[in-house]
User: Fold this.
Amino acid sequence: PLLGGLGGARRLVAPPAVPVIDATPQPLAYELLDHVPPADEPVGIYVPWRLTRIAFPVPNPHPDQLVESVAMSSILPPVPHYRPLLPASAVAALSDAQRETIIYAGEAFGRDLPGLYAPDAAGTALRSDPDGQSYRMGYMVGDGTGVGKGQQVAACILDRWCRGHRKALWISKSAALIEDARRDWSALGGLPIDIQPLDAFALGSDIPMQSGILFLTYATLRSQRDDAPSRLQQILRWLGTGFEGLLAFDEAHELANALGTETIHGKQKGSEQGLAGVRLQNMLPRACVLYNSATGATDPANLCYATRLGLWGQGTAFETREAFMAAIASGGVAAMEIVARDLKAFGLYTARSLTFRGVEYAPLEHILTVDQIRVYDAYADAWSIIHQRLDDVLEATNIVDRMTGRSLNAQAKGAALSRFESAKQRFFGQVLIAMKLPTLFGAIDDHLALDHHVVIQLVTTAEAVLERRLADLGADERANLEIEISPRDYMIEYLKTAFPTRMLRVFKGTDGEPRSEVVVDEAGHPIHSQEAVRARDELIEQLCAMPAIPSALDAIIDRFGTDRVAEVTGRSRRLLSDMAGRQRIERRTARSNIAEADAFMAGVKQILIFSDAGGTGRSYHADRK
Assistant:
């Protein structure tokens, strides 16, 4: 019978045994070396990295060879004594290089900056104060791609976590990087739910988490509203006054220019982003501050926010941050190298990177076709004509004296020429990329035929051009899209918005020299030069007849299809075409980049194309841990 035997006795099968994982934190075991092992032969300006002061009873070499610059390799770090408190599973997940970072970071956190300090009224600077507080020393990780900076941040948080400090702050460049942070935290035995985005909590509200890792971006850190406390105040309330957990500045160079810059026009105020980061450090004197940046010691501006490295203040060669920045800026790259070496000698800095040994490079050369040369020359001639007409218009609008050629309004002339040159550079940058596409397509086809994966990086997505074109469309045009995105739009947009047509009035200044100023009518509206307006309209009409040049990003997606191309960019909308050539607009959310990157990493899509917005902090490589 069909159901026969179902009522008989069933034998239960024992579930598979689950291995027992010891999650009890234990001090990290290592022994001090009596002698420093000799370095291997340098390869160019790099020396293979090795442990110089310690050895682990159970070594775990990094998955690939790490190197240091010759200058950094010549400096030995101090002998460490700190032993991080970590579960055995976390220790097993960390390579020897990563373990060394955790040890020296903990060693630094155990010391204080010399002297007592108190923040000023704005919170952006520390001043010596006998009644002030002692500030904990920080540490900077300057490792490059492939060393595992995110996992090192997670391990430093876990060390403090196991010591009872169950709150931490993780600040990074992009909100999408929270998934990478959760990945690195989970790899050490943590739970993804431990990391929560600050954006999940309304501005001005209390954060209900009793423990956990708060993830936020630098843009969120600086945000504030007049009708509510700032994000910075919200964070400080959650952390509390005696906070001793980890404060991690991932991609810390985003805080550059916290001090401000000196220009020919005078001193410019520091960026709000950098100032917010400095305030956060100054309001948490006992926090363990970890700076994480592969470009931390490449430019003096990338150190002005690093108040916890002891580069200035009491007991140093520089009394103030301003004195340090001025001295290092005058010393150039050599001075920055000395700073990096000194920081490593004090146990406050590490900078390693993957070796380039075994990496192959092959230039891909595109030979311009006769048609491409003709198109390029046509556009070069068009820009030349615009430049000539610009000179005529500067005279017609009284920015330049028609008789003598002398500038009557230097500021207006400078602005007009600056916008012309910037528009021209953006245009030709797009053109040069687009003209390489035929050769690029052939190379991609060759690699796909070999079952290779292709990664393409773009410097621009032309999103601004698309947004402007969509804003100009009516309801009927939106229903039946026929949009052509081309670098030519940069020229037309420049003529519409930046070509000088406003009339200026000539007058004599106090020194008797002729000057000019903007003319307005009785209602306060600007008066335009009809000669300049006619010149602009004629140029636009001529440009509309020029041949179109495709946008590189859209051309690649159109050529290979969305089922094969993973796009990780900052675009919120993109223009797609179906098999019949009909266009449609596809909206992209913050989750789109995560889904596209996952599709590429899983092998579902063979081509990845990313821009700066999609590249920072992300890992697009085979995972070897």
Q: What stands out?
A: The chain has 19 helices and 25 strands.
